[in-house]
Write a structure and sequence with these properties.
The chain has 96 residues and is mainly β. Helices cover 0% and strands 60% of the residues. It is globular and about 35 Å long.
Length: 96
């Protein structure tokens, strides 16, 4: 069983980024799930995924980045992928 969540933090403002649209695109490229971050900047994207390569597409609050796209390989267990975004920079990592 594979599950996936995210957390978007606006490091320019020093607070969670609420209302950020996040898309999850499945291995076939056809299965797309969409979520919006809550007041704490968090979103649960999926609870029952099959193993494979997935794309996360963030639409962050930035005057420069219109979207940030990550491709991740999910194999088993829970994955948490935070995005730290500022007006002109971003970073991500595999969280716990």
């Amino acid at each position: 069983m594979i599950s996936l969540s995210t957390h978007v933090l606006d490091t320019g403002r020093g607070r969670p980024a609420a209302g950020v649209r996040v898309e999850l695109v499945g291995p076939s490229g056809e299965d797309t799930t969409e979520a919006t971050t809550d007041a704490d900047g968090r979103a649960r994207l999926a609870d029952e995924l099959e193993p494979g390569e997935y794309r996360l597409v963030f639409h962050p609050p930035s005057p420069f980045f219109t979207q940030v796209e990550l491709t991740v390989l999910l194999e088993d267990g829970h994955y948490h992928v935070p995005l730290l975004v500022s007006p002109y920079g971003c970073a991500t990592y595999r969280g716990s």
